[in-house]
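User:
Can I borrow your eye for a moment on a structure tokenisation matter? Would you put together a sequence-and-structure record for a protein of your own picking? Please set it down just below, with no commentary around it:
AI:
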Amino acid sequence: MDQEQILAKITAMVDDERRLRDAAASGQIDSATEHERLGQLERELDQCWDLLRQRRAKSEFGENPDEARVRPSSQVEGYQS
């Protein structure tokens, strides 16, 4: 996945997040469903941002950005800012 594809996926997931919040606010889905789906989206978003950072770092240091790989959410979620 190249940088543009990753950014498009991030944008789509952010849109999904907004739709979920709107659906919960309007009573279309319950809060438990919203919480579960948002948690999944947040983990996937973190993985996408991590992949994007990996690709940019590899490019910056003269490495092949296509060698960047999606890391497990358990690894990505353990990072601290």
User: Anything to note?
Assistant: The mean pLDDT is 93. Residues 3-76 form one domain.
